[in-house]
Amino acid sequence: MSVGLTAATMPPVVKKVVMLLTMVTAGVVLSGGVGEGATLAMYNKCRETVWPGIQPGAGKAVVARGGMRLQPGQATSVRLPAAGRAGSGPPGLRLRPRHRPGACATGDCGGSSSATAAAAPPATLAEITLARPPDFYDVSLVDGYNIPMSMTPFRGTGGRCASAGCVSDLNEVCPAGLAVRGGADNRVVACKSACSAFGAPQYCCTGSYGSPQQCKPTAYSRLFKTACPKAYSYAYDDPTSIQTCGAGASYIVTFCPHYR
């Protein structure tokens, strides 16, 4: 069954993005040669500015100059390459209103507003592999968490086409040993993964723990999974985390989807 958004539940800015997706999808069907690509729409429902960084797979062209700035309530869309892997994150979360590259509170990109260089964890990550069909996509907390994120297919056929994501505020339940604090009030602004925090093989699924049979959920990954059941909680959390969608799908990534 295909899962999508209805006009009744969409704010005006998202209706415009969905209209754009509809027009692009129709154009792709008619043009044939570029019909293997997809459109990725991004909508910022957060109260702060977000810088989504887009990293293509190895050997693929940079998409949208590697990232962009989304003000609260702003939406945009980009075309994804016809094949390969592109991440819609990690997003750099800007808690201060002025544009000063490298000053992101979380998901910092090393002094650049573009994310052609990997953003520093902890940061929520959305991934999509355009196999066409099916596409494979997920939202991952393997590198930690900074803001809620959902990924929803639009007009896909075949596969489950279910939403992926972490829509809870994991910072509210982040254990002290994983918490990253910042801001004038020293509040929790991000939550590290156990692998990032401790580097132990049993958390990172490395060394003698480098297989699904040996690397099992831990107390930390179970906490992540309880809060965000539709997101990767550790490296081998595939069965309940990766989603598929068939031909013709485009995707909407929403930052802070729980905000109204």
Automatic annotation (TrEMBL):
Classification via InterPro entries: Osmotin/thaumatin-like_sf, Thaumatin
Organism, by scientific name, is Ananas comosus
Q: Report the sequence similarity comment from the record.
A: Belongs to the thaumatin family.
Disulfide topology: C46-C256, C161-C245, C166-C228, C174-C191, C195-C204, C205-C215
Q: Which Pfam families match?
A: Thaumatin
Which protein are we looking at?
Thaumatin-like protein
Region feature (Disordered): 80-100
Keywords in alphabetical order:
Disulfide bond
- Gene3D superfamilies (UniProt xref): Thaumatin
Please give the SUPFAM superfamilies that the UniProt record associates with this protein: Osmotin, thaumatin-like protein
Top-rank lineage group of the source organism? Eukaryota
